Amino acid sequence: MLRRVIVNFTDAPNEALQGVLYEWRRGWITMRDVDALTTGQPPQHVDGEVVIHVDRVAYFQVPS
Fold this sequence. Notes:
It is built from no helices and six strands. By secondary structure, it is mainly beta. The chain starts with a strand and ends with a strand.
């Protein structure tokens, strides 16, 4: 998959994750090289992989 995306959440409208969508399997997505984005704050790098259940995802943005 390996595409840079921004993940916006259903339960945290002021927070998002930006990184590489590495894998999507059985309702779970795995991201790498992730920055946590919060309104009014600078991006914070997240070490390792991040795994999110798709039920928490409101929508994806794919930067051009």
